[in-house]
Design a protein that fits this description.
- It is built from twelve helices and nine strands.
- The strands form three sheets. A five-stranded parallel β-sheet has the order 2-6-7-8-9. A two-stranded parallel sheet has the order 1-5. Strands 3-4 form a two-stranded antiparallel ribbon.
- The chain is α/β, with parallel strands linked by helices.
- The protein is elongated and about 70 Å long.
- Strand 7, helix 6 and strand 8 form a beta-alpha-beta unit.
- About 13% of the residues have low confidence.
- Helix 4 crosses helix 6.
Length: 274
C-alpha cells in the first residue's frame, strides 16, 4: 500500500509547486514588535521561535537574542529526500503583516526584499498620532507611498490608536488624515453639508501636507477599534446640552443626513476606512 507521501510525489511537478506555495503561505498575520534600541530584521521568512512574531535582531550583539532557540519555518523539506530537494529553497511567506507604529513600517518596507513584499496583500499599521496638531512627516510616509504605488493590489490599513469609532470627532480626524496624506476628501464631502457654515471652518485644515507624496487609494485610515458601539456613538454625538462645536454643528444641520447619516458613515468607515 502506497503512503500519502508516495501518492503526493506522483502528482505532476507543476501542481506540486502550486501546493508548496499554498502550504508555505501563512494564514495568520505576522506581528512585528521590537523593544527599544533594537532593529527590525527586514525579511518575511526568518527562522521563528513563534511563527507569528518576527525575530528581532539586536543592533549591538553579534549573536541575536534567541537565535539558538529558533526553528526552521519551512517544515516541508523534512518530509522526504525528494521534497527536501524540491522545497529547500522555499520560505514561509505571509500575506499579511502588522506593525505597532508607522516608523517600523517605514523601516521594514524600505529594506525588505521585493520578492517578499510582492506576496503581501495586507499591511496593518497601529499609528499613534503624537503630533496631533502638526502635519505628518513626509519622510516617514514616503516608503509607504512607494509600496502602495508598486503593489496597488495590497491594502495598507492605518488604525489611528487614539481615535475611537464611538466619537464624532474621529470622523473629522480621519478626514484630515485622508486629505493631508492621500490628498483626497471623500470623507469630508460625505460628512459635511455643501452649504454649511461649518464646512468653511473645517476646509482650511485639509490641505495636502507640505512635501507629502500623493499616496495611492490603497492606503486607508481607520479608527483604533474595529468594533462600533452605535448606542455610545449616538450618546456622544447627540448631546443636546453641549456647546462644543461638533454637537452644536449637528443640531444646526451641519452634517449630511443628520445623526442617522453620521451613524451610517461611521459604520462604513469602520469597515472600509477613509
Amino acid at each position: 500500500m502506497e503512503t500519502a507521501g508516495n501518492l503526493f510525489m506522483r502528482i505532476p511537478a507543476e501542481l506540486r509547486s502550486i501546493i508548496y506555495e499554498y502550504a508555505l503561505t501563512e494564514d495568520h498575520p505576522l506581528s512585528v514588535k521590537k523593544p527599544n534600541g533594537h532593529a527590525i530584521y527586514a525579511a518575511l521568512h526568518p527562522q521563528l521561535r513563534d511563527r507569528h512574531h518576527l525575530q528581532i535582531l539586536s543592533t549591538g550583539l553579534s549573536h541575536p537574542y534567541g537565535v539558538r532557540k529558533t526553528a526552521e519555518a519551512n517544515q516541508l523539506r523534512f518530509t522526504n529526500k525528494q521534497m527536501y530537494h524540491e522545497t529547500r529553497g522555499l520560505s514561509l511567506h505571509y500575506n499579511a503583516i502588522e506593525f505597532t507604529n508607522v516608523e517600523d513600517a517605514h523601516y521594514f518596507l524600505k529594506r525588505c526584499a521585493t520578492l517578499h513584499l510582492s506576496k503581501l496583500r495586507l499591511v496593518t499599521i497601529r499609528w499613534a498620532d503624537q503630533n496631533t496638531f502638526g502635519v505628518p512627516d513626509p519622510k516617514i510616509w514616503q516608503n509607504i507611498s512607494n509600496f502602495c504605488q508598486l503593489y496597488p493590489s495590497a491594502m495598507v490599513r492605518v488604525h489611528v490608536s487614539d481615535r475611537s469609532p464611538n466619537t464624532l470627532h474621529t470622523l473629522l480626524w480621519l478626514a484630515r488624515y485622508e486629505a493631508q496624506i492621500r490628498d483626497t476628501r471623500s470623507l469630508f464631502t460625505a460628512l459635511i453639508e455643501e452649504n454649511s457654515v461649518f464646512r468653511d471652518v473645517v476646509r482650511p485644515c485639509l490641505p495636502l501636507a507640505p512635501g507629502m507624496p500623493v499616496v495611492h487609494d490603497s492606503l486607508r485610515f481607520f479608527p483604533a477599534a474595529e468594533v462600533f458601539d452605535e448606542e455610545e456613538f449616538v450618546r456622544n454625538a447627540d448631546n443636546r446640552h453641549s456647546f462644543l462645536v461638533l454637537p452644536l454643528a449637528l443640531r444646526l444641520g451641519g452634517f449630511r443626513g443628520g445623526l442617522d447619516g453620521l451613524v451610517s458613515l461611521m459604520k462604513h468607515v469602520v469597515e472600509h476606512g477613509a
